Amino acid sequence: MEPVEALERVAFLLERSQAPTYRVKAFRTAAAVIRDLPDEELRRRAADGSLTTLKGIGPSTAGVVTEALTGRAPGYLAKLEEAAGAPLVQGGLALREALRGDCHLHSDWSDGGSGIEEMARAARAIGHEWAVLTDHSPRLTIARGLSPDRLRRQLDVVAEVNAELGDGFRLLTGIECDILADGALDQEEELLERLDVVVASVHSKLRMDAPAMTRRLVAAVASPLVDVLGHCTGRLYGGRTRPESEFDADMVFAACARFGTAVEINSRPERLDPPRRLLRRALDAGALFAIDSDAHAPGQLDWQIYGCARAEECGVPADRVVTTWPADRLLDWAGSK
Ligand SMILES: [Zn+2]
Ligand SMILES: [Zn+2]
Asked: Where is the signal peptide, in residue numbers (predicted)?
């Protein structure tokens, strides 16, 4: 295993196991430093112990590099691989097996930690045929939401990444677009039309009264521009907690079914949104679903298993899940709305 590969694998496994960002960052930074180093210099520094004099390389990352260069599996990595052998959650395997893509992930263009190509490569490496890049929209300034100009530039970058990656995987264009308080969408209509997939989510004024929130969500999911309703209740648990937004769930899910908008099953461990009782109601309403990672780092792409386990528990059939569809079917659906 190449040193860069070993460092990236360590980072992936740490992200997957919800390790704190600062711990992961050391390995991602070290990988970036090593990648730019001539092979000869790398070997010399590993031999004379001077790797740690490089900015961004510490004792543990230098250890991984040195061990990888000797041709052995680094001990630190071996330990992580062993822990990763155990499943993250019980159940969900059949649905996970059926997944072909992911409709919701972020890059460092907004609040993700990794570049676009790195995210695309990681999605391909876990077996996906496609994934949709959905960075935030302008109003979400704390997450560096993309202005129309930045989003236009991002479309060119996605095209370059696809050319680089070649056949067998497609990075699709998209956005996680804020649903404004009145149900309007936080991006230029012409741009939303050009994107392959639009996820629309509420990130502000989550506590508005139920009738207003119902109108807001129905307006968004009824829009022909919107394909997926992201994390519909906005609830958070774990560290930072936030109660569910209140709305008439049956009315919102009926609108999703009526207008062919998928209800997202958000797989982030602190979200797991919608909760099971609402997931069952969305199922009864006849809605489609998207099981999404909402990954902000490569290792988090593996979190889809959490959503799969919940979907399976609630009896969601694979064919109602758009993330099990081939890219062409997904694009037909999203384009025909
Ligand atoms: Zn969101
Ligand atoms: Zn997101």
From this structure: none
Rounded CA-CA distance 82/103 in Å is 30
Total domains in the fold of the chain: 2
Give the alpha-carbon dihedral of 295, 300, 305, 307, to 10 degrees: -30
Buried b (16+ CB within 10 A) or exposed e, 76-98: bbeebeeebeeebeeebeebbeb
Domain identity same for 80 and 97:
no
Smallest-distance ligand from the CA of 203:
1
Instruction: State the chain's mean pLDDT as an integer.
Output: 96
Report residue 92 CA to chain centroid gap.
18
**What digits encode the pLDDT tens for the residues 274-296?**
999 999 999 999 999 999 999 99
Q: What residue numbers bound the domain in which 59 lies?
A: 3-84
Q: Does residue 111 share a domain with residue 51? A: no
Which ligand has the minimum distance to the alpha carbon of residue 233? 1
Measure 318 CA to ligand 2 centroid, in angstroms: 23
